[in-house]
Amino acid sequence: MKHRQVLEMRKSTNRDPTNNHAASIAVLGAGGLGMAAAKIIAKKKEMKLAAIADKTGYVIDIDGIDPELLENKKPGDIGKRTDDAISEIIKSSENFDGIFIALPNLTNRFIPDIVSGFAGQGYNGVMVDALKRSQAVEMIFGLDNMLNDAGITYITGAGATPGLLTCAAAIAANSFMEVIGVDINFGVGVANWESYRATIREDIAHLEGFNLEKAANMTCAEIKEELDNRNGILHLHNMEHADDVLLEKAGIVSCEKVKVGGVVDTRNPRKPVSTTMTLTGRTFDGAVSSHRFILGDETTMAANVVGPALGWMKAGLEFHARGIYGVFGSAEIMPRFVL
Amino acid sequence: MKHRQVLEMRKSTNRDPTNNHAASIAVLGAGGLGMAAAKIIAKKKEMKLAAIADKTGYVIDIDGIDPELLENKKPGDIGKRTDDAISEIIKSSENFDGIFIALPNLTNRFIPDIVSGFAGQGYNGVMVDALKRSQAVEMIFGLDNMLNDAGITYITGAGATPGLLTCAAAIAANSFMEVIGVDINFGVGVANWESYRATIREDIAHLEGFNLEKAANMTCAEIKEELDNRNGILHLHNMEHADDVLLEKAGIVSCEKVKVGGVVDTRNPRKPVSTTMTLTGRTFDGAVSSHRFILGDETTMAANVVGPALGWMKAGLEFHARGIYGVFGSAEIMPRFVL
């Protein structure tokens, strides 16, 4: 890995446009988020897509994979077919500066187990996830010592929410002596649920009367029927969302004061409500007031998850180059704009 | 200095409430911002006010100064009178983990010269400023090698704007492939201009027909007359504000695409407009959209400048403990909520 080079990149904003110091990134998952990551990385000078893997198989090309090859295809279609692609990525992991985990996470253990696999096989680069559930993020924090010993710099909860909005809350908190509450209300619109199967399935698991196991066992037809019954719209309240754990870990506010909910329209790319983070606090001079961070309605979930995730990847590469390892939450480190 | 202890604090959110590891902070300046800093630091477990200095003199008490002693008083009234208080702070600087520079900055050289003085006399802790003008911030960046060699971790432009809003812009940028523009429009209300003489004087320097020299040479009566002519309200456009330099330095957007303006009411603590940062960009999928960060109207300039400045002080203490020195802009590091 080219740690020194990554560090040097940071020190200079007028970088050589022909530089070959782009960090090699492996993307785990090739659903909506994984494919968006492939497209975004292809447009970045500081990163290249060196591998992508999902349940169909994997492709590795350390010179950079052209995302057009993946258009309407799966990794197994253009690379090697296997039902154990993650193990193949782990075997080749010395080639990757960073791993972005964009896999569905229907059981809490799934991603922590994969991460342990990387550490156990000697991987010592950067890892970033876009996990959403509090329990899964807590399990990742439980790997802090293991990842620190392995020399892995890991950033968890590094998507949109948790992620971009959590980090905005952490910054907003600085105006206040005491944070009274954080309220995140998201709007998501997708043209059809099939493009974000795993995400929508996980959203269904948060509905009243559902849980992770039940959602995981539903057939696609059952998901479709459930969505039909709700006119394609999911109203979510008091979700188990790791913004709470991440803000508590950063010392900003205790878990129970963080509320996350939202509205998901599975039939319309237009957002049903503007995604807003509202942080309410008390200032040193006694005023109670709220700072708000509002995402532009035209920005998609993919843009708001993957862009920040790669921003945290860059931050992680910088920390790693400085020898700073272990697990960090997205409310503890600032994502760094990737050139 | 207690670097190891500061670092340890970061690793634990369940800190010993009786710990004596509070970082010793010296505040330079005892105007509106300096006095707010004294009050805020007094309420924080992780910091203590070890010194405060202005043109009247200075007080040093490494066990912590009670800010009530300063109520309606100046440092020279309760400590030692001298017209060279900064030199006295420099002489004692080995006692301070961090220095917050809250001095008026009517010439661009003033604060960079003070910083050079600290480095020249062997200070090797953390320094944070709330400078506003682009040229002054650029001069601080010019000290990077000197401060790096001295072992000083310095964060510049670390107030509200530049500062809190610049950092929010840097985070918001991650959703986009390209940032088209950043627009900062602030509203400030102060009950009377006398509480924020230096700040209001600097704002007047930005008005058409005025400059820094002219504003610096105005008598208080002339300032009052100018404010009377404008019914106490200053409309500011296209200000020379370091948000531009800081965002360019962080690789996010070129200087000329950052616009800063605002409305200052010098007779009413209520804000005439809500302070808003709007970042417009183009996403990977071609959408043009804007994220916004809006400050609560009830939060004062003091809360929004000093809270974040101390947040960057904590971030600087963490970096310093890890041996990371030199100059950083407020768009490159995340401020860390101070307990």
Automatic annotation (TrEMBL), chains A, B:
GO BP terms, alphabetized: amino acid metabolic process
Domain Glutamate/phenylalanine/leucine/valine/L-tryptophan dehydrogenase C-terminal: residue ranges: 19-73
Bias-annotated ranges (Basic and acidic residues): 1-14
SUPFAM superfamilies referenced in this protein's UniProt entry, alphabetically: NAD(P)-binding Rossmann-fold domains
InterPro entries: Glu/Leu/Phe/Val/Trp_DH_C, NAD(P)-bd_dom_sf
Molecular function via GO: oxidoreductase activity
Domain of life where this protein originates: Archaea
Pfam families: ELFV_dehydrog
Protein name: Glutamate/phenylalanine/leucine/valine/L-tryptophan dehydrogenase C-terminal domain-containing protein
Region (Disordered): 1-20
